[in-house]
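Issue 218. Parser rejects a valid record. Input:
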Amino acid sequence: MPARMVLDAWMRTRTDEPAPQIPGKRQQDPSSAALKTWESLNERQRVYLGEIMRDDRMTETEMWMRRVQRLSVPRAAEWRKLPLTLKAAPSLVGYTRLQERLRRREVHDPGAGQTVHALERRGLLIITEDAVEHPGVGHVGRVLVEITRRGRAVARAGLGEPRESAHAAHLLSEWLWGVLARVAVAEPTGLEDDRLAGRSLFFIGVGYKGNAGGRPSRGFVESVPVMAAGGTHVDEYRWRLTRLGKRHVAEYLDLYRELYPRVDTTGLGPFPADSL
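Output the parser choked on:
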């Protein structure tokens, strides 16, 4: 049985006892193979790989912010392909964001193709091409690069960054924590019904589950009726934390703030003891 189900059952039934401490995955040192690959690269190749990894992270943050603002987000298979160059004179089309990054590191365009193809041969990048419409030039070809999982591991090893470690199994992903935090911040009034929808409910909404025969949602939020003045009829529905949802937030708020500092938890404080 998954650890999260056991922990949730514990927190539902043992309301006067602290939640058991479940350790997360320990950060690991970089692999010797990744370090060896990094050492085999020349200085220019290292700069390219490092800047491509940083631009990938910046794009990931931008996609996360769009999701929080409930804007459309393309598939990761699309946005992870980063524009490297446009096949036209920079005086006409300018520089891509990745080119600007490289230029700040004093690495300029001549030899770019040779550099990225050397990284591709090592399995660190994937190179593709497409075409876009540019307002000043019209139809123009474009070269895109995508860093591979191996490429990230090599860049992290070479730049002295720890391996990316997954959060403990009982904790929510950054996306789901962001949704739960929005509901928590809106307590005790609740979040408007139309401000919470989509796939997140299949993971944290009462009465939802991913698919037929699948495990039920964790039940951290529920839609509750708000009566009109005088109690004559239901005026609206609002999303509020369940008792389990409140306890989950109370137990792990500090840990989530450390794990996901980008999630806005301003105004989120302790809940009254009698509500847990």
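Fixed in the parser; the record now loads. The longest helix spans residues 43-68.
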